Amino acid sequence: MATAKRTVVNERKKAAPKKKKRQSSPLVKFLKWTFLTLVFAGCVGAMGSAWFMYKNIQEVEPLVEHIDEKIKEYNSKPSRIYSAHGKLLYEIRPIYRDPVALSDLPEYVKYAILAAEDKRFYEHHGVDYMGLARATVHLASKGEVDGGGSTITMQLAKKLFSASQVTFRRKIQDISIAFNLEKKYTKDQILELYINQIYYGEQAYGLNAAAEIYFGKEAKDLDLAEAAMIARCIRLPSSQNPVRNYQISDFNKKVVLNTMLEQGWITQGEYDKAKAEKPKVRGFARQKFSKIYAAPYFVAAVKRDLDQLGINISEGGYTITTTLDSDLQESAEKSTEREIRNNDEANVGAFICMDSEGRILADVGGRDFSKNQYSYTTQSPLQPGSSFKSFVYSEALKEGVLNDEDSEISNEMVKWPLGNGRYYNPRNHGGYGGSVSLWSAFVNSINVPAVHTMINIGPKRAADLITEDFGFDSKIQPYPASALGASEVKPIEMLEAYSVFALDGRRVKPYRIKEILGPEGNIVYQGKMEYVTTRIGPSICATMDKLMRGVVTSGTGTQAGECPDARGKTGTTNDGKSLWFCGYSKGVIGIAVVANQTYDRKHHRWLLRPMNQYGGSTAAPIWAQAMIPTIAKYGSDVKPDFSKHSESDEMKHKPKPEVPAATDANNAPADNPDDQNRVTIDGGPGAPATGDGPPADGGDAVPTDPKNDPASNPGTGDVPPTKTNGTNGPKPPDDSKTKKPSDSDYVEVEVCADSGMLATRYCPETINRRFLKSKRPRKKCTIHHAPDEGGGMK
């Protein structure tokens, strides 16, 4: 029975229709497969990312092994200037960095940095995953890599190894380096490295440098409010520091203090006190990142040469080898100081010399660089006195006005009309009359024959010939008084000019820089001899050589006779305001200058005061003592092999200067211990030579003194002379109505000591200079710039 029932039930089941299986919709299938694909891709991506991270960690591990060398490299990449034999003369660092030990800092200084940059620093292992998550969301939503998510360890990695790159690969590299740093160093070591490497603005790298620049103290002496204010500078160091924007810096200080309070790093009382405090920021003080070790005037001249070459050594990494012989430099400095110290009137001496190929071997630009950075050898235009006669007589020999040292020259009184009833009347101590030989006129430095000689050539023609043959950049005035050194020139110009006599008519340009190596060690510049063959031929040079030897053996320059085979010429300007000896021996050329400078506080400039002394008694001994060791080391009777060098086209076609030097025909100098009478006008005492010395500090120009304004003393040109009481001379235009500038026409301007342009906050050294208002600089310094912003979370 039971079996029959089961059979019936089974038959009914078979007879019943089958139910269809429920099928998934296409959308469900798509979502299911998409999910599976994403899971698979995620697994693959995670595995790939893990592998990528692993490979990166392995790749950067060697970098971290050399982190000590990397930090040393960051801390010491100065540019250096050396002497010819490797003595360090100068160095400049591109940044201001002053490391400090973490253990020397108060705890609140350390916590201020953590509050500003990475409050979980002591909790993570170099990577803040929450921060990274935010950066990842930013990447997904904005399509660009965010600077956020960087821990202190990652910021240090970026600073040391990946600079300012902002890429996904850089972020991964920073993470990898951070892991390695955390393995190699303790947290305190990492934090100490960080606070000493990061940028805080205003050229301050490191916390100690920032404390000095902003508050004038060391980091260990910062109070809580100051520490909080500095700590927040790291994020935007160039725009949100207390010098640039105190208001926002004060706000940022409160943000840091609030975080410190939340973290329990300070008490409520400390918070309230620091929040209310207004830290006093020091007036911005330009920090000196450079140091001169020796030969300061020479170093300053080298820096100006580098500027002209377009090389900015303040960026760091340059090595400059110069021509300077440091032993001879030291000897020249001692010789100059010894003579000045024993002098009752003179208080500054200068000396510069070069060898036969133009290498400057010594350069003493003044007595005290800390007081007056203006170089008497390379920057200061001075009247050269009778040392200028050498050029006048050379041109006379070339032009056929004179034949040899026995040629006779008139010694009759000169009365050259200046206009408005005035006359230029140079005087001789021994009187006038008759004629004298060129030998006697030159060796004994008699004034009137030199003036007659320039008149006979033609003042304008003589000035042009001298400029071309002897290479002067300064304007040689076309007046008879220029024969006696009335036109102002720089001693370094005289150095080049006297090389013509030492080298048989070839003029050699002085140079200081032998070689410049760039930051990568490549040669970026090499100095070389530059020369030009002048129209002053060997026979003329031989005659001048005899004359200049006579000056030393029996004339006005006998005190230079201690130097073997010395040749030269003395020079003394009107009232003895500058004393000269210019000469050479065995191919070495040297120039010595002595003056009495005093500072005019009212007008903020240096003035030259009269002295009752002469070039032969004061400058000649300095010259001899400085030249003796120089000749022993570099002197040679053999001239350079000029066939190995090509002539300089630039020296051949030197442009004529447009701006005349401040001088006056009335300021004719007198030279000769036996010829003490000065220039006179209408028989009365002559107007004194300009009292303008160089400015108190650097720069390349001296303000024109009103009484020496060339506009009020026009030249006479080459107008044929007319007889006036037995003396020839044309009459120049009337200058009595010419307006002269007054003190109100001048303005004092702060300029960069390196560029001479308007100073900015980034110029490491500045000076105040006095300019005519119409000639004051108007452009800001282009040499020194703000460093790139760096560090901090962006």
What labels describe this entry?
single chain; Penicillin binding protein transpeptidase fold; 3 domains; six-stranded mixed β-sheet; alpha+beta; 794 residues; Beta-lactamase; five-stranded antiparallel β-sheet; 14% strand
Report what the structure shows.
This protein is α+β, with helices and mostly antiparallel strands. It folds into three domains: 30 residues; 248 residues, Orthogonal Bundle (Penicillin binding protein transpeptidase fold), CATH 1.10.3810; 351 residues, Beta-lactamase. Helices cover 37% and strands 14% of the residues. The chain contains 22 helices and 27 strands. The chain is elongated. The termini are far apart. 46% of the residues are buried. The C terminus is likely disordered.
Provide a quick synopsis of the model.
With 794 residues, the chain is of the alpha+beta class.
Beta-strand share of residues: 5-15%
CATH architecture of the largest domain: 3-Layer(aba) Sandwich
Number of strands: 27
Radius of gyration: 39 Å
- By secondary-structure content and strand pairing, the structural class works out as alpha+beta
Q: What's the number of structural domains? A: 3
**In CATH, what is the class of the largest domain?**
Alpha Beta
CATH topology of the largest domain: Beta-lactamase
Global morphology: elongated
Distance linking N and C termini: 90 Å
Strand numbers in spatial order across the main sheet: 5-2-1-6-14-15
Mean pLDDT: 79
CATH homology superfamily name of the largest domain: DD-peptidase/beta-lactamase superfamily
> Given the structure, what is the number of helices?
22
Largest sheet: 6 strands, mixed
